[in-house]
Target: Amidohydrolase
Amino acid sequence: MYNRRTFLRDAAMGAATGLGGCSVFRPLLPTDFDFPVIDIHGHIFNGTDIPVLGYLDQVFLRDPHSDIEPPGLLGALLRLLVFILREATPDAETELSFLRTAPEGDFAPTVTGRSDAGDAAAVARALAKFRADLANRDAAPSLDGSDPDQELLELLGGPDGQQPDLAPSIGAPADFATAQRIYERRAGQNTYLRNSRIFQTVRWAGLLTRPRSRILDEYVTLYKAGGNVAVVSPSVLDFELWFRANDQISPMADQVEVMSEIARRNDDMLVLNFLQFCPIRAALERARGRNPLALLERAVFRRGFAGVKLYPPLGYKPTDNDDTGIFGEKPGKKVRGADINRELDALYTWCSRHDVPIKSHATNSNAAGVCTALNASPALWEPVLTAYPDLRVNLAHFGRFDETGADDTCNGGPTDWEELTAQLVASNDGLYSDLGYWVAAYDGPASETSRIRRRLRTLIRQYPTLPDRLMFGTDWSMLAREPTHPNYIGRIENVTRSVGLDIRSVFHDNAITYLGLRPDTPQWTRLAAFFGEERLQGALT
Model:
């Protein structure tokens, strides 16, 4: 159980072991914004909000963007990540109880020391448990006779060979020394630079052991001062019924309540949450005689939520799913394609009626099953937009110019999802796309980043409405797996300027229109009732 004693322990451990002195260097590229930036695509969740085993096994492992160097260590890394993400991570109910008993005006009433030092302490404890597990089970050597788990420990421990024999005690000095090394960033440190992706993935997992309010603190530190971000739109995720593993997660209703309370209390920036809609869960609720949209209605009408998230790569299409197909991974919680279609149609009708925008994952990634990433194709949205012309939909990631997809052999794979999106934008007034996790546009060989910029310039010339529909997004904290993430806003600003896009449109104006944040709209009325008219207006101007 994560409680007040755990918070204090993390702070004390950080001080006692020197972890409080870990120096995480955050270089920030200068930005030039004289207006409040809107990040339309974010995530503020921790390790109790997602099915950790299912996500790592079915999504992370098959994603080509999870490749690490040296090769062969991914399985070992995933085993370590499970220990980290489960290390005293507070569930939604626990954090909500802290927030609700704190004085008004105290945004994060936990412990201010739960930052890099607390993350490192959690990683140190997880390393000890990982070693204990390794000592108590048969080794699983690779085909060449190597031991990936031990190699990972040696890699993280560094060239000094400071990893102890496999006779661990929780909090052993070597584990804290390893954690401190993981969180250090020394200029010119060749080992860090060479292994920065694997180190950053461990740091990302450490971040997700924090309370959600502290994860938001990290976002504010990174992107408010350095990027003038005034509004962020994170999504509360609902993956549970699409994964085989039986993970215990925070109930969706608790996640809605804690993120609503965080949004209400946080004065640093305006937090406009979206709630993921799971058509399986909706179909099961309907079968029990309950309102399948009850939680969504509560979130939007009473808890300050601004929209709906869809995640087709989990295993469904936006429409026209096979009527007789079986969907879902949990015994006793599977439904037919006809049920999926019915619930999606009900959602689209509800969103159209109440002026609620939709944000949908639309890049060939994060598949929960073989070839299911193709369900994110922009082409599959055309019949939805035809049937529901009043919808406002954000096809997130604008294809990402990185359509390698999962390592599956799939027929009908993507060729140019960017152009598919641009074509739909040209023929649908309510269609938008964001630039979340657009790392491929700046981080890679010069020949590839130049190709992407040339391609974007061409699309802008061919589709004149496109500049009015592209929106800035980070996809943070998922983006935090990338070593370059602190510089993301400056780098995307550079890309957008270089292709001739209007900066204010991309980083502010287009998101205002997509979100429906104009006075006298239903969206404005709802959000002003929750946040207050003055606060809402102040964040947007």
About this structure: The chain has a mean pLDDT of 86.
